[in-house]
Write a structure and sequence with these properties.
With 299 residues, the chain is α/β, with parallel strands linked by helices. The protein is 34% helix and 11% strand. Strand 3, helix 3 and strand 4 form a beta-alpha-beta unit. Helix 5 packs parallel to helix 6 and helix 7 runs parallel beside helix 8. It binds zinc ion.
Length: 299
């Protein structure tokens, strides 16, 4: 526990140093820093009200019908809002606890399509967290559509990747809702999950996320935004072992339910297939995000 607190402090310091960016272009040391920097802010959004929900409006093609079938799966996991881990809803069930969730943030930039293809090749899924500024253009919209058509769940990661805690409430709302609007324009449905840039939420942003019917999640570990791990081989080791000594984590964060943060980056894309296989060799199953309880599938 002390370890964790220390690491949070270390990560927080790193975050202050590393995160002077706002409009991430690409390989700046990324933002989404610090595993669980935000835990204390991460109030449970477990009690879920009825939401703006899925009216799966325009689902005509067979492809989309398939996805609808996917989303109709009964959830067996949920997001533990204190730790951002993925845990069985029913602790007494025989649901496999030894799972990890893959997530990819700052999408769709240059590598997202390739990463989606790699996931498919390895028969694994992941949540893709989208920034609105990437999907303004037709090209960006096409990428998002393709990722969605490949069956991957889409998350909202704000429009311009700001630290929400620095913005007035109306701007926080705009940063979140405008992206969901644009995503809906492109894929015909609103995003299911929300992850705040830098993991930093406010009471207001959490309320907007709730009102929008999204499930909030941070992550438990990730290394691709630390300079020493901007290298496929080193990143692979760190992700599979859970240890990132060069980022101040000299013990393993890999455990059941780990929520793994990765980004749309070249080195991450290169390492992705090996990360999946390495985690499987360690005995972990990549959890199907469609089996995670959200406001859309809980009933
Ligand atoms: Zn991010």
């Amino acid at each position: 526990m002390r370890h964790i607190i220390i690491s949070i402090l270390l990560f927080s310091v790193f975050l202050l140093v590393a995160c002077s960016d706002s409009q991430q272009t690409s390989n700046e040391v990324e933002d989404d820093n610090g595993e669980k920097t935000e835990q204390e802010e991460d109030v449970s959004n477990q009690e879920k009200g009825t939401s703006t929900d899925e009216k799966d409006a325009e689902n005509d093609t067979a492809e989309e019908a398939d996805q609808q079938e996917e989303t109709a799966k009964d959830p067996v996991y949920k997001v533990d809002q204190e730790t951002s881990s993925i845990v069985p809803i029913d602790q007494d069930s025989d649901t496999n606890e030894k799972v990890v969730l893959l997530t990819i943030d700052d999408v769709p930039d240059e590598n997202a399509i390739k990463m989606a293809e790699t996931l498919k090749e390895h028969n694994a899924s992941a949540i893709f967290f989208v920034n609105g500024h990437f999907i303004e253009t037709e090209e960006g919209a096409e990428k998002l559509k393709k990722i969605h058509d490949m069956g991957f769940p889409i998350g909202n990661h704000t429009y311009s990747h700001p630290d929400l805690t620095t913005l007035p409430e109306e701007e926080q709302t705009e940063e979140i809702v405008s992206v969901s609007d644009r995503i809906e324009e492109i894929i015909g449905e609103r995003p299911t999950f929300f992850r705040a840039p830098h993991g930093r939420n406010t009471e207001h942003s959490k309320q907007v996320v709730e009102d929008e019917g999204m499930t909030l999640m941070n992550w438990t570990y990730g290394y691709d935004y630390f300079e020493p791990y901007m290298d496929a081989e080193k990143l692979k080791q760190a992700m599979i072992t859970g240890e990132g000594p060069e980022a101040g984590v000299d013990y393993s964060l890999l455990k059941s339910g780990a929520n793994l943060l990765m980004h749309d980056r070249e080195w991450t894309s290169e390492a992705l297939g090996d990360i999946i296989e390495g985690l499987r060799e360690e005995g972990y199953e990549m959890v199907d995000p469609d089996l995670i309880q959200t406001k859309k599938n809980e009933n």
